[in-house]
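fold-stage: in
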Amino acid sequence: MAQDIEMAIGGKVYTITLEENDAAKALAARLPIKLQFEDFGAVERIAYLNPKLDVGNAPTRTTPKTGDLTYYMPWGNLAAFTGNFRSSESLVPLGRMSTEAIRALRDSGSADVTLRRKE
């Protein structure tokens, strides 16, 4: 069954529904974590994880859509998509965010973003 986690930005909380794969489980096991996202390209906000996630048997190719939370294996970063993108190798699907959540992340600038277990 899919797991929900929370993303807190500026005092507001949004739900992210995680995929049922090894990489999403590895991310959930690290929570809570505080990150700062930055713009990358026209349709991504990224934040680096240290150490990198163990993706296990998770899919390593996806075609991201607006609201998708993914993990880019070569760089070890989370990538949240604010727009649709092409099919990409080494991009692991982690979860889905609502329109409101992706808008808040897009507008967060360099503010702290906390991912945590759902209360």
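fold-stage: in (second)
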Amino acid sequence: MDLNDIWSIFFDHINKDPHIITIDKKMKAGIPFVYVCTCPDASLDATLAILKKYAVKAMKGKRLTLELAFIRSEENLHVFRMRFLVPQEKMFCCGNLCFDCIRLREL
């Protein structure tokens, strides 16, 4: 499963939320920005909680982390920088006796 599948799952879930009117992802300089138009009664904190809730559902069972940062807001349109990050794993032994050394892994 690649990141496009994760984004698809995320959008499938969040489009069903009654507080979200529209949501759109735009790539700027290779970084994904999410434009969220909410109901007028939804606060910025509530919008942030909704994004996190559905991101967690999309990441369930996968080794991903979420990077979510508020950028700006205009009435009920909020912009966030949002990325699903894949953890980096060591591929070789550097000789520094690291706790996650590749030599200590079970095959």
